[in-house]
Write a structure and sequence with these properties.
The protein is α/β, with parallel strands linked by helices. It is built from 9 helices and 15 strands. The protein folds into 2 domains: 2-101 and 253-272, 2-Layer Sandwich (Nucleotidyltransferase, domain 5), CATH 3.30.420; 114-248, ATPase, nucleotide binding domain (Nucleotidyltransferase, domain 5, 2-Layer Sandwich).
Length: 273
């Protein structure tokens, strides 16, 4: 069995999968504010739910920069230099422990759900912040795995700002005082398309992905701004640069969990080969 852990800013989702991808139950709990509290709660859940089963791997997704299975920084949680792998090793016997950025993992799942796997895909989650994940031929791109597209510095309203500071779901709520689900104004959605386009106008010429997949809470409402967004990008991207296909995430709420499963499967295969 592969146990997957999607750690969010407000809630954590734990799920088990058989090696052939059959889900075996889910457990949710509010994400504790401290690493110590998180580890205590997660350990209790892992032992209670999976301690009696043979677990080959635990895969933990975290919303921040992860290097060598260590969480360098989670901005929305305020966690720094958190060695999750070391602390979870041995909790479920000999299970391998893998830790990765949540957007990278979602990128794997959404890319593998496409009808054909592209040379380079870019997954962008637009929710509280903006996270990006690059996948090459179905796996996390090793050269771009630490990229943080949401923190790209762009000029907006006459000053230098990060893309997520004005284009994320959190920024949209602060600007319009409405959640995406409550926005009905076409003009507002046109403005949101413009906000989101600004990051893509930098990323597309730089990386030239074949496909861009948009997920997250704002991605859920992709139909509200899809046409406007594509029109903006087509009008501003130089003609000699291929315009990527832009699609909505198929499983925005489950992408990270399934990405954990695929990553665990691949990592175990690498170890076993």
């Amino acid at each position: 069995m592969i146990v997957t852990v999607d750690t969010g800013g407000t809630k954590t989702l734990v799920a088990g999968f058989t090696r052939d991808g059959i889900p075996k139950g889910q457990i949710k709990f509010p994400t504790p504010p401290t690493p110590a509290g998180y580890l205590e709660k997660l350990t209790d859940v892992l032992i209670e739910e999976f301690g009696h089963q043979k677990v080959a791997a635990i895969v933990v997704a975290l919303p921040g920069t992860v290097r060598d299975d260590v969480v360098v920084y989670c901005p929305n949680l305020g966690w720094k230099n958190f060695d999750v792998r070391k602390r979870l090793t041995g909790v479920l016997g000999n299970a391998q422990v893998f830790v990765e950025n949540d957007a990278n993992l979602a990128a794997i799942a959404e890319t593998r759900s496409l009808s054909s796997i592209p040379r380079l895909s870019l997954y962008v989650t637009v929710s509280t912040g903006i996270g990006t994940g690059f996948v090459t031929n179905g796996r996390i791109d090793p050269a771009l795995r630490y990229s943080e597209g949401g923190r790209s510095i762009l000029e907006y309203e006459g000053k230098q700002q990060t893309w997520e500071s004005f284009g994320s779901g959190g920024a949209i709520y602060r600007k319009y005082k409405q959640y995406a689900r409550d926005i009905t104004s076409k003009r507002t959605w046109n403005e949101i398309a413009d906000l989101i386009s600004r990051g893509f106008l930098t990323i597309i010429p730089t990386t030239q992905p074949d496909v861009i997949i948009i997920g997250g809470s704002i991605g859920t409402y992709f139909d509200q701004y899809k046409v406007q967004l594509i029109e903006i990008l087509k009008s501003k991207i130089p003609s000699h640069i291929n315009m990527p296909k832009i699609v909505q995430a198929k499983h925005p709420e489950q992408a990270v969990i399934y990405g954990c499963y695929y990553y665990g499967l691949d990592s175990l295969a690498d170890i076993e080969s």
